[in-house]
């Protein structure tokens, strides 16, 4: 499978029509690690009661427990991560409403003239490589890299492959995307014991998606959360040696691309969305509530304080932080800002769901609003706790103005397509039915 991806990738790269120019005054190696489906409140260093992330808890970096993903599913989210733009700005988005990715209604790809981290680093002489266990990441941004490896294997193999790719290179940018916490879960046997994961039918995938009524739900939910934590711990273990062997001047960013829902907001989801699959409050890509939009982010880069912060930041800040660290002028249209700069008073955005009518969320001054543009439904919340509680009686005017300011956005660069093998894997991952 990996060989087929590599050959197809080379052929697509040969037909690229856009070239980018850049200058780096302080070149450093760069590693970006994405842990698919990683929620911030399941990180032990941020207060989770199970020891899920001892490696990341001890990583000497800025640790942001309140980072907002630009979207709640992989395709638009990683496009934003590597471009520093929101989906309505880079074009990796659907061109119609409602959406139904499960019926193979695919989004547009990112516009070719949008500069990304691998584009600009490649322009200044870096070797650029993507190693991923999630094919949706390759479909989103794989064409921006010189080398691409797609294998549906656990974190131990993907991390080993990344270390091998890095080993013989002088100046490099490595993007590593791990899929263990994404269903079907990859759960190391030793951590089934660590977290007392019981043997329950369907624990690696999903049950109780249409309703939580039915015998055994409470036991299943508890087991599911333990299994998810075990998969996170396995990923964290796999990263230990990789992080320990990096030079201290290597710029490192580690994050979730979105979170995962575990029956957090079933009634509010039904109020805002008529999911074409009939699924509510599980998985991801169907809402912009905090369980999906809030992710952890670790950054080790010059001028970024190596401390913990719960101030709201965005994954669109990763690309400008990398550019700043390397002395590369960022593209003019970039939406993010370097994480070395103050983050107070910013408006942050999450958008582009994959099932039902599109939703947008905006955060401002400790409050959040979610709107469904096609239906004009809007709810607002105070965020005194991790998750949204009951909506406010009215939407604050400043949040209404913010949501109205974004506009409809740009068109993408042609619809995403699939080969048969990738389609089969996306079906296994739950994207398609």
Automatic annotation (TrEMBL):
Domain Sulfatase N-terminal span(s) in chain numbering: 28-328
Pfam families noted in UniProt: Sulfatase (PF00884)
InterPro entries the UniProt entry points to: Alkaline_phosphatase_core_sf, Sulfatase, Sulfatase_N
Family, per entry: Belongs to the sulfatase family.
Protein name: Sulfatase
Organism listed in the record: Halorubrum rutilum
